[in-house]
Amino acid sequence: MGFFDSVVKAAKSAGDAANNAAISKTEEAWKKMSSLSTARLEDLIKERTVENQVGFIALMMFYKKDSSSAQRIIQNNKEIVLSKAKSTRKRIELTENREINDLRTVLTDVLNRFN
Asked: What would you measure as the largest C-alpha separation in the chain, in angstroms?
C-alpha cells in the first residue's frame, strides 16, 4: 500500500501546484486589467472571447467599471459566464488578498444578478 499512497500524494501535490498557478495567473490578470480602459477591456473580450480565461477576467473587470455596458455581453453569453464565474469563485475560495477579494465580490455580484 505504501507505493499507492506515494502515487496518490504525488498526484495531489501536482494538482495543488496547478491550482496555485491558476490562482496566481488569475490574480495577475485582474491586477493588470484594473489599469485598462473600458474600451481596451471591450477589445480584449472581443479578441479572446468569454470562453477564454483572459477574456472572462476582462469581462469581469469591464463589469466592475461599467456594469450597464457589460450586461449585454453577459446576457449574450450567460451560460458560459455563469459557469466560469462559479468555477473561478470556487478556485479562489481559500485565497484572500485585496485583488482576489475584489474579484470575488464581482463574481458574486454577477452570479446573484444573472443567475
From this structure: 57
Mapping DSSP to helix (H, G, I), strand (E, B) and coil, where does residue 77 land? coil
Q: The whole model's pTM is what? A: 0.85
Give the CA-trace dihedral at 78, 80, 82, 85, to 10 degrees: -140
- Which residue type occupies 50? V
Report yes or no: 29 and 52 within 8 Å, Cβ to Cβ.
no
Question: DSSP secondary structure string, 10-75?
Answer: HHHHHHHHHHHHHHHHHHHHHHHHTTS-HHHHHHHHHHH-TTSHHHHHHHHHHHHH-HHHHHHHHH
pLDDT digits (tens, 9 = 90+) for 46-72: 999 999 999 999 999 999 999 999 999
C-beta separation of 75 from 50 below 8 A: no
